[in-house]
UniProtKB/TrEMBL annotation:
This is HAD family hydrolase. Gene3D superfamilies: HAD superfamily/HAD-like. InterPro entries: HAD-like_sf, HAD-SF_hydro_IIA, HAD_sf. The lineage of its organism: Bacteria, Pseudomonadati, Pseudomonadota, Alphaproteobacteria, Rhodospirillales. It comes from the Bacteria. One of its GO terms (cellular component) is cytoplasm. GO terms for molecular function: phosphatase activity.
Length: 313
């Protein structure tokens, strides 16, 4: 994530998540907890879990900085012997680059502890065996040569859009309104598959919410009526990856920690694991009507805390 992304205000982001909720995983009866328990920080409930999964942005860090108390919380969990993992929708960077950034913030995560949506982009494309010409939303440094078929970056030439047999939206770093208009106009003329490597609508970047690929995918879908196909939170592949690593751990002993209802909490609930929503340093920082948001979304977590390391700063 290197460029100057467009920003989105929180109310618009919430409205978009609510508008497109039917394109996200649907919860079955019994997936929601009976109530949400308020806790001080993650250490208050740590003894209930053998595996804890963290979202990165808004939980561990906000922008380039670690969220206060997060380093202490992760260190304390390590000492208790809890197995920790990180799940990210940052499909624009390699696992090594992501882990290096976390280590520069002071975290001790390894490449093996990371599950990125990027891992599932090629398998998603391979399912479309009849598509050979792909248009790719990604910055110019992204390793496009590793994709199947003939892939071209979506730029300012309308011909690239019309020649594509399918689209893969990976990273919005160099995206702007004119390119979005070209994408929507081309899809309106001829609907084609829309694949999404980062289904986030927005991401907390410290003092603003950056607009992510998922937002543009939904707008493109509106233009042509094609359901976007997504990998990453809240969809199952990334959660199944971690569950498959711990086949003997009961799902009630696995916790997903995130800062959004429609990616982290929804994904955890759909996977049948416990969920913790944090409210400071991420998407909901300063938000005052969580009860109303629960009611509007039909989603609520098992636990809620200000931050994983609240009081440990």
């Amino acid at each position: 994530m290197t460029g100057a992304r467009p920003a989105l205000d929180r109310e618009s982001a919430i409205a978009a998540y609510l508008k497109y909720a039917d394109r996200m995983p649907q919860l079955a009866d019994g997936d929601l907890p009976a109530q949400t328990q308020v806790v001080h920080n993650i250490l208050e409930i740590a003894d209930q879990f053998d595996v804890i999964i963290f979202d990165a942005f808004g939980v561990l860090n906000s922008g380039v900085h670690a969220i206060p108390g997060a380093l202490s919380a992760v260190s304390a969990l390590r000492k208790r012997g809890v197995d920790l993992a990180v799940v990210t929708n940052d499909a624009s960077n390699t696992a090594e680059a992501i882990i290096t950034r976390h280590r520069n913030r002071g975290f001790d995560f390894t490449v093996e502890s990371l599950v990125s949506s990027a891992k599932y982009i090629v398998p998603m494309m391979d399912r479309h065996f009849d598509v050979t010409q792909w248009g790719i939303m990604a910055p110019q440094h992204w390793p496009i040569d590793g994709l199947p078929g003939q892939a071209r970056f979506l730029a300012d030439d309308p011909g690239i859009y019309d020649a594509a047999e399918g689209f893969v939206l990976i990273d919005s770093d160099e995206w702007h309104g004119a390119r979005q208009q070209l994408l929507e106009a081309s899809l309106a003329k001829k609907p084609r598959p829309i694949l999404v490597g980062n289904p986030d609508i927005c991401a907390p970047m410290g003092d603003f919410l950056s607009v992510e690929s998922g937002y543009f995918a939904h707008l493109a879908a509106d233009a042509c009526g094609v359901m976007p196909q997504c990998v990453g939170k809240p969809y199952r592949e990334v959660f199944d990856d971690i569950l498959n690593r711990h086949p003997t751990v009961d799902r009630s002993r696995i916790l997903m920690v995130g800062d959004t209802l429609h990616t982290d909490v929804l994904g955890g609930l759909a996977a049948g694991i416990k969920t913790l929503l944090v409210t400071r340093g991420g998407f909901l920082d300063g938000y005052e009507d969580l009860t109303g948001l629960y009611q509007r979304s039909g989603i609520h977590p098992h636990f809620i805390a200000p931050a994983i390391g609240h009081g440990l700063e």
